[in-house]
Design a protein that fits this description.
- By secondary structure, the protein is α+β, with helices and mostly antiparallel strands.
- It is 40% helix and 13% strand.
- A hairpin with a 2-residue loop joins strand 2 and strand 3.
- It is globular and about 70 Å long.
């Protein structure tokens, strides 16, 4: 049957009556919500959804928020929600979907992304982590880097080279890796902020059953494009209220501290406020386009705008605060569960935003994607496209 807004409200009312948020354990409520098809309504029945239009998710969310129902803390499990889940949904077997999607959505199992390597960041297809078939298992050896949440994760989405004798894009396979398996070692990477939210991950003779392969052997690059396109939308296209995100603390400081104002800073703040609002509305339009299908390369443009605006706004805020902007709240080495841009001080925002033009695809690579796949401009010459990976200069 067709699921409309009225039907979703009815189902949400039934969920709240059967599992009152005030007296129901948080995890029990989230599991019940998933089983009722109200987790992500556009997913198929039995997988947390009802096959409803994606645009109707806001109906459920509004009803549950008004009732004081708990959410699944999406900032903590963003990699699972924004990257792993849509990839598993598109390429996973029925057994994989049933096994992974529910605990992923409820937050019982945190996910991380094992893609980038020390020698394969911007040129991800040049990755060298090897996976060798031994019977019904794959033995994986290599190193990954810049892995957010690896210190918290139970599972990882992993791409590895399974055939070095073909061109680099063709010899990659996609796996689901258990981060608790023998041979998986996670080491912290301390950042300019003082924290270690990123990690490097060493894989030594890690055995992954073939049942945890996602997609066909050698088709990992195509599978990874689904992950990467969703990642860029998740980073650059997040839903924000008006004057939300990085512009919020800068505008608040301007209003509350008139003694800091200058004409030049006023003009720059107005320009960035307008650009932030344009980016917010563009992201809303992009999310509406997602209702009709999978995200495309347009998400690269949103990720570009996100990185540039964050860096320019945080720089303006530090300058606005003058000497106060040079202060820093806490340089303690810690391994946080999430990135909190607006809950920390101006110095943290300024330093942390430097990574926005690297994570989720460097701005240089994303500019190429926009040029070639959105604008249709001629591709840059690539001499390594038809050369076997084993023959590439490294």
């Amino acid at each position: 049957m067709t699921v409309d807004a009225a039907e979703l409200r009815r189902r949400t009312t039934e969920l709240l009556a059967a599992h009152p948020p005030a007296t129901t354990d948080r995890l029990d409520f989230l599991r019940a919500r998933f089983d009722a098809g109200l987790a992500w309504v556009h997913y198929p029945q039995g997988l947390g959804g009802l096959g409803a239009p994606r645009s109707l998710q806001v109906v459920v969310d509004a009803e549950l928020e008004a009732a004081g129902a708990p959410d699944n803390d999406p900032r903590r499990i963003g990699i699972g929600l924004g990257m792993a889940a849509p990839t598993i949904l598109k390429y996973g077997t029925e057994e994989q979907k049933q096994r992974y999607l529910r605990p992923l959505w409820t937050g019982e199992e945190v996910w991380c992304q094992l893609f980038s390597e020390p020698g394969a960041g911007s040129d991800l297809a040049a990755l060298g982590t090897r996976a060798v078939r031994e019977g019904e298992n794959w033995v994986v050896n290599g190193q990954k880097v810049w892995t957010s949440s690896a210190h918290l994760a139970r599972w990882a989405i992993l791409i590895a080279r399974t055939d070095p004798a073909v061109p680099k894009h063709a010899g990659i396979t996609y796996f689901l890796c258990d981060m608790t398996d023998p041979g998986v070692e996670v080491r912290p990477l301390r950042q300019i902020t003082g924290e270690a939210e990123f990690n490097e991950v060493f894989l030594t003779d890690v055995r992954i059953p073939d049942s945890r392969r996602l997609g066909e052997i050698g088709d990992g690059w195509r599978v990874a494009q689904t992950t990467l396109n969703n990642e860029r939308v998740a980073i650059g296209g997040m839903r924000l209220p008006r004057e939300g995100g990085m512009i919020a603390p800068a505008a608040r400081t301007w209003r509350e501290r008139p003694e800091l104002r200058t004409h030049d800073l006023h003009q720059r703040l107005l320009k960035l406020w307008v650009e932030s609002e344009v980016a917010r509305l563009t992201a809303e339009r992009l999310r509406q386009q997602l209702v009709a299908g999978q995200p495309g390369p347009e998400g690269a443009g949103m990720k570009l705008a996100f990185a540039r605006l964050n860096q320019e706004i945080s720089g303006l805020e530090v300058e606005l605060r003058g000497e106060e902007g040079l202060l820093y709240d806490d340089w303690t080495m810690r391994r946080p569960e999430l990135v909190d841009f607006t809950g920390r001080d101006a110095g943290y925002r300024y330093l942390r935003s430097k990574g926005n033009s690297i994570e989720g695809g460097t701005s240089e690579v994303l500019l190429n994607i926009v040029a070639e796949r959105v604008l249709g401009l001629p591709a840059e010459p690539r001499t390594d496209k038809d050369v076997a990976w084993k023959d590439l200069a490294r």
